[in-house]
């Protein structure tokens, strides 16, 4: 059975506690679990950035702000586990060893952040390498990787396909303050390059996009892989 690691943006899963998409994702993830082994790394989203903003206002340093952000990612992960019920391992994995151990049960494994100064995208990339994943999916709030921020620049162009080196060229130089909201951090890009695991970046605001990509091999987004390879699982 194929192994898939999903980096699930906090702004996609939990835009706010009052308007979350957990129920919508639960039904899709349960359907996907019948087709492949699933590992999910949940981000902190807007809730994490709010905590980080308050911490900075109180004089906290970046390391302390990062620790708060990690706590929020794990709270979001716990909410998803609650929604998944028996389909998920009942604990949030707090490191890669635990993720591997929990996966032995055959259930969906969910985790949040681990290391200060790394985004959950970096965590998902390292996790994908650790478990020998066949595909890494980044479910975010845009439909792929663009030449510029499409929310700010109407002339931004979406890339349909990139090599790992081209991805690194795009993300090199991005700032990595606590709560940073960028395509991927440099650690994730480097791990994707060295591991050779293909990456698919797609719009996660509609959970069905994720299901169609995995089950049908149909998607709108950006594929990052070596030229000539085909990462689709159809």
Which helices and strands appear, and what pairs or packs with what?
Elements: E1 3-8, H1 10-13, H2 22-33, E2 37-42, H3 45-57, H4 62-84, H5 96-103, E3 109-111, H6 120-131, E4 135-140, E5 145-146, E6 158-159, E7 161-162, H7 164-171, H8 186-195, E8 199-203, H9 207-216, E9 221-224
Parallel strand pairs: 1-2, 1-4, 2-3, 4-8, 7-9
Antiparallel strand pairs: 5-6, 8-9
Helix pairs in contact: 2-4, 2-9, 3-4, 6-8, 7-8
Organism: Methanoculleus chikugoensis
Keywords: ATP-binding, Cytoplasm, Kinase, Nucleotide-binding, Pyrimidine biosynthesis, Transferase
Protein name: Uridylate kinase
Account of the protein in words:
It is found in: Cytoplasm. This is Uridylate kinase. It comes from Methanoculleus chikugoensis. There is one protein chain. With 234 residues, this protein is of the alpha/beta class. It has one domain: 3-Layer(aba) Sandwich (Carbamate kinase). Helix content is 43%, strand content 15%. The chain contains nine helices and nine strands. It has helices at residues 10-13, 22-33, 45-57, 62-84, 96-103, 120-131, 164-171, 186-195, 207-216; strands at 3-8, 37-42, 109-111, 135-140, 145-146, 158-159, 161-162, 199-203, 221-224. A seven-stranded mixed β-sheet has the order 3-2-1-4-8-9-7, with helices on both faces. Strands 5-6 form a two-stranded antiparallel sheet. Helix 2 packs across helix 4, helix 2 (22-33) runs parallel beside helix 9 (207-216) and helix 3 (45-57) packs antiparallel against helix 4 (62-84). The longest helix is centred in the first third of the chain and has 23 residues, at 62-84. It is globular. The model is unreliable at 175-181 (pLDDT under 50).
